[in-house]
Every structure is written in C-alpha cells, then in structure tokens.
UniProtKB/TrEMBL annotation, chain A:
Highest taxon listed in the record's lineage: Bacteria
Domain FecR protein span(s) in chain numbering: 167-262
Keyword Ribosomal protein among record annotations: no
Protein name: FecR family protein
InterPro entries cross-referenced by the UniProt entry: FecR, FecR_C, Ferrdict_sens_TM
Key words, A-Z: Membrane, Transmembrane, Transmembrane helix
Domain Protein FecR C-terminal, chain residue ranges per copy: 306-372
Single annotated GO MF: sigma factor antagonist activity
One Pfam family, short name: FecR_C
TM annotation in the entry: 64-85
UniProtKB/TrEMBL annotation, chain B:
Family under the similarity heading: Belongs to the sigma-70 factor family. ECF subfamily.
GO MF entries: DNA binding; sigma factor activity
UniProt KW Cell wall biogenesis/degradation keyword: no
TM helices/strands, residue ranges: 176-195
Protein name: RNA polymerase sigma-70 factor, ECF subfamily
Superkingdom of the organism of origin: Bacteria
Source organism of this protein record: Pedobacter nyackensis
Amino acid sequence: MQEKEIKDLLRKYLSGNCTEEERALLESSYLQHEAHDLPELSDLQFSEIEHSFIKIPKKTDYRIWGTWAAAAAVLLMVSFGVYFYQSYNSGYSFKTQLIGKDIAAGKNKAFLTLSDGSKVELSNNQTGIIIANDNMMYTDSTVINTQAAISSATTPQSKENYKQFSLTTPRGGQYQIKLPDGTKVWLNSASSISYSTVLINKLVHRKVTLDGEAYFEVKKDAKQPFIVVSNDQEVEVLGTHFNINAYADEENVKTTLLEGSLRVKASAPNSVILIPNQQSISSDHSNTLEVKNVNPSTVLSWKNGEFSFENETLESIMKQVSRWYDVEIAYENEGLKKELFGGSISRFSEVSKVLKMLELTGHIHFIINEKERRITVMK
Amino acid sequence: MNLYKNLNDQELAVLLKKGNEAAFHEIYERYKGILHMHAYKKLVDFEEAKDLVQELFGALWDKRDDLPETVNFSGYLYNSVRNRVFNIYAHKKVAAGYITSFQEFNREASYITDERVRENELAKQIEAEITALPERMREVFLLSRKEHLSHKEIAERLDISEFTVKNHIKKALKTLRFRLGLFAYLLFLIKYYFLK
C-alpha cells in the first residue's frame, strides 16, 4: 500500500467510514508500531509533564449585560412560564445516576453469641427470637439450629447459656429479640445488645449494654429494675417503652420515651427524668444533657419499616442510609452535610428510591456505585 | 480529605459531565503522565505530544455534555489519544515512521480481529508507561487503581499479554537503566532474572 492510500485509509477511519476489517488492520498496526531510536526524555522534560496543568476555558462575558437586560428579563419570564408548564406536565426528572445495579435494602440479619462463646447465625427468614430461661426459639416457634453455629463451643449447649448472651446486627441487618424477663427489643442495623442479670445492693437488676440503636418495651417488674448502659450513659426503668440511639459515630446519645417514665444518668453529675414524647440528648464531650419534645413517630420510623425525616441534616440522614444499605458516603463538598431535608419512604425500597425522595426536596443529586458500595452526594 | 482522589474513573466521569472542574483536574492528574508518554512514543516529538494531550483534555471539557455513559472511561481516553495520533499521521509529511511500519505490518497480514482484545492491548500498552514515569506521577495513577505494583509485578503482568508487549519489559529496563544509572540497573536485572 502506498503512503497516500494509507493516509486516505486513516482519514476514512477518522470519519468513521472504515469497514470492520480496515479498522482491525489499522488498530492492530497502531499497537505494533514502535518508533526506532526514540530519545529518552530528560529529567527536565519529565518535570515539565509532572507540573503541567490543564486550564479550563472561561466563556462568560458580561459586557453586553446593560444593553440586553430588558430583553433578557422578558425572555426569562416567558421561559419560566414554559418551564413550569412543562415540569408540571412531565413531572420532575431525576438526575441521580446508577453505576451498575441499584442497591437493595437491608434485611433481617443477626447473630447470637452465647455465654460459652459460641456464635449462631440467625435465619434471614425470621423476624426475631425468643429466649426463655431454659430454651430459645424463633418467634414463630421454630427451633434455632445451633448446629449451624459459626464458631461452636467445646462444651455442649446448656441452659446456663441463656442467662447471658448478646445479639448483634451487621450493617444492613435488623432483628428482634424477647429477653428471658419478657422484655421486647428491636435492634436496628450495625447494633449490638448484651443481656445479663446482676446484683446491685442485694437487688437483682436486669442489665443490657447497647451499641447502636434499639427500641425497648420493658416488662414491668418492680423487684428487678431494668438498666440500659450505652457509652457513658445509663438509663434506669421499671416498665416503659423507649428508644435509644447510641451509635459510636454519632456525637450524642439520644433517649426517647414513649410510655411510662425513666431516668437518664449521663457521665456528668447530670440526671433527668423524662416524660412521654421527650428526648434527652447527652453529649460526650460537652458533658451536657439536653431535653426536648419530639415527634415519636419520626423517632420510631425505623422500627416501623420507614425512613422518616423532619428537618434533619443530610449528614444524619446519610448515616442512616449508610448503615441500612451498607454503603459508604462521599460528599462533593462538605457544606452539603449541614443542609436540612425531610420526607418519608419505606425502608425496604431500593436505595435509589430513597435518594430520589431527597432529590425532590432539595437541590442535590447522587451517584450510586453498586460495585464499590458508595454513594456520592453532589449539588 | 480530598474526595476526588478516592473516586474511581466512572464517578469522576459523571461529575465531569455535570461540569465539575475539580473532577476534571483529577482526571487530568491521573492520566496526563501515561497519555503523554504514549503520545511521545507514537509521535517521537515531545512538544507535539504535549500539545496533543492538552488539546485532548480541552476537547474533553468542551464536549463533556456529550460524553458517552460508558463504564469504561479509561478506554474512552485511550481511543481518543489514538484517534489524535492517527489524525497527525494522516496529515503530517513525516509520520514518525508509521507509514513504513504499517507497510511492514500489512505484508504479514495477521491482525487482531477481536475488538475487545485490541482494546485491552491498547490499555496495557498505555498503562505500561507508568514504569517510565517519575515516582509521584506513578503513585497518582496506581492509587486510582488501588493497586500498588512493584516493577517486577508490573513486568510479570505485562508478560501475560500476547501481543506487542514482549518488548515492553526490555524497554522498561532500558528506561530504568537511563533513569537509575548502571549500578541500580544491574541490581534490578539480578533481582528480576535470578530471584523471580
């Protein structure tokens, strides 16, 4: 082939008119082509590449502003009319982008650790377990298969095992448990509770340690007070319904009372008694204990299978999304974290639906990266 | 924390489509080295290669709205650089020896028919240029791949390839000889040939 033919072929390639065969030939020859006697680059040249920078062309020119202002204003009004008319008719168009597939919601997932150290993975098809003094089962009375223990103990299962145990949910998991005293606990994702009975001042206490978030319906028993320890806070109750949010990556421990009464003791010599629909917020570093009135249905939405936000910061919302969908969150700029959002949606929707709801209420968009399990928040 | 350093190419591409300047700069930092080195090898002209990369990125920014929604963003960049090199071959008097090279190649009449194989080969060839780059630029690229490969690992990896890459180890070593000096080069040779 002559030089001219080759150059013509290249032009044909560049205009996209090559046959498949010609394309294969050119691209293969490109791969194979190596320049002979290529001079090595000098350190100066390497440094030039290293310090090179790309400039972004700026186009905006305001000089004609004055002349055209009036015309622009008229045009703007007309355009807005058209725009609103169109958006009214076509609905909102979402800009959230998926890289790969959508991300499914969390599910019932947890494992139980017994006092002999054995770990049992609980069924995903069950919602909760019941632990009595001498046996344990799923809420529908199915036997828990302890043979399927992740790590089994050397000694056989004994009744002693049920006196002290812990239940842990991973990110993207939730589970329910009924404790030996009849108390019901709903455990949110990335959380853990351990239960035991202890003697304090010759009185038997029911004691639960909590990391993460849980909702309690404590069985009334005046002779055996119920204590929940989380971070530096302790809650003492007789028989009440309350929710505690004590994630290690949150700044505060939030205790919300729904029924009865309870006393919150924080690390400082602070102590407060809550009445229903009140929430105490104890802060580790400022040693304060604040109390405010809240809407209980928002606080309990997670337990009722919903995400419900009222003027909540995006950072706080995305932390919940992160735990339930087991994703990491990246922000285009840190300022977005403090913006306030609201809305509610089923917790069992795919993540894109939750994010689209947020998109509706403010000017933000998301990139959902399924493979790396990451959500990027942007303006 | 610099968010952009942690994002992968596809995520940066989505941000770029939206007109995010920081994402654009991050893509440039990631790719400028290997694209420049590649263009230099195909054009044998440092300044021309520099202009090519600058123009490629200028066009990338101007046409960001029309970026394909591709999952293979690096492949898109690699094809763009090849098209620009082809464009220079097609219009230049002395096309860096390509014409002769093509004629020789054409006589053998064996080429890669599978488009995906060609794409992979191109990616390998371009990414192999990291061996020639100064440490810091190499890091930026490798970090974006979340892989920290030693020279040996890179060489081994390239060894797997079936086409054109045979010479790459030789060339990488040659580059190393120039950049490290004779003593370090001998050490590397010993390490590579006797300890693998």
